[in-house]
Amino acid sequence: MEDSMACPECRSPYGYATGSSFMCPECGHEWMENEALVPETGLWVIDANGTRLLDGDSVIVLKNLPVKGMPQPVKAGTKVKNIKLNEGNHNIECRIEGFGQMALKSEFVRKA
């Protein structure tokens, strides 16, 4: 058995051997060595807490986010439904009530 292996749940490189299985210190996931890691085919986006986000999820904004051309920011605590993920710096596309279509960074949201 290897001494370490990347976690198949959160992709943390710190998975360690516990004797007959592996354990992730970051997310707590436990898996057997023979559970092969499936190559990643989709986009992997994580929120501010390290939780994986998927298309269609709902997220909550963690801090006030200023918006160019608008007199007020998107307030912390705003719930955003039905997000779409994409590549790039602003990797979440969404529609926010009162602001319209926007792109957000995943580091400023958490999964609802």
Describe this structure in words.
This protein has 2 domains: 1-41, N-terminal domain of TfIIb; 45-111, SH3 Domains (SH3 type barrels, Roll), CATH 2.30.30. Helices cover 0% and strands 29% of the residues. It has no helices and 12 strands. The protein has a 4-stranded antiparallel β-sheet with strand order 1-2-3-4, with no helix packed on it. It has a 3-stranded antiparallel β-sheet with strand order 8-7-12, with no helix packed on it. A 3-stranded antiparallel β-sheet has the order 9-10-11, with no helix packed on it. A hairpin with a 6-residue loop joins strand 9 and strand 10. The protein is elongated and about 60 Å long. The termini are far apart. The model has no long low-confidence stretch (mean pLDDT 86).
CATH class of the largest domain: Mainly Beta
Low-pLDDT runs? none
Please provide the count of β strands: 12
Mean pLDDT across residues? 86
The largest sheet, given as strand count, sense and whether it forms a barrel, is: 4 strands, antiparallel
N-to-C series of helices and strands:
EEEEEEEEEEEE
Query: Would you tell me which CATH topology of the largest domain applies?
Result: SH3 type barrels
| Shape by Cα distribution | elongated
Using only C-alpha atoms, the radius of gyration works out to 17 Å
- The total of helices stands at 0
The amount of beta strand, in percent, is 25-35%
CATH architecture of the largest domain: Roll
| Helix content estimate | under 10%
The CATH superfamily name of the largest domain is: SH3 Domains
Structural class: mainly beta
Strand order of the largest sheet: 1-2-3-4
Q: How many separate domains? A: 2
